Amino acid sequence: MASTIQVRVDDDLKAKSDALFKDLGTDTTTAIRMFLTQALAVNGFPFEIKRATANPYKTLTEPELSAKLEKSREHAAQGMYKDASEVSHDMRAKYGL
After folding, report:
1. What distance in Å separates the CA atoms of residue 15 and residue 47, rounded to the nearest whole number?
2. Do 71 and 63 form a contact (C-beta atoms < 8 A)?
3. Domain residue spans in the chain?
4. What percent of the chain is modeled with pLDDT above 70?
5. What is the pTM for the complete model shown?
6. d(C-alpha 80, C-alpha 83), whole Å
């Protein structure tokens, strides 16, 4: 039997979340299931919770972005990458999706 969870959220938060998860190839319901599955796997929140002192998601400068892209290209040239279908398969196996 499946249970239903109802959560009230701001309309803007819902719309932005739906768009984000759609862009990531999933939907909000699946994302919530993934959150709950990962919370059980780590026996707690699947991310660190703390008071923010600075924005960890600051915008990269052009030189920082270029350096990350170059490092990515170097890794790819050395064969240090996985095919997307392999990553998807690994995640499904690990998280029972």
Report:
1. 23
2. no
3. 9-48, 59-92
4. 96
5. 0.50
6. 10
Take residue 37 and report the two structure tokens written for it.
């599955």
Greatest pairwise CA separation for the chain in angstroms: 53
Residue 25 DSSP one-character state: T
Instruction: Give the residues of the chain that fall short of pLDDT 70.
Output: 52, 56-57
Q: Which among 3, 61, 55 has a CA at the least distance from the CA of 32?
A: 3
Assign residue 5 a region (left: φ > 0; alpha: ψ between -120 and 50; beta: otherwise): beta
Instruction: Give the model's pLDDT for residue 52.
Output: 67
pLDDT, tens only, 14-23: 999 999 999 9
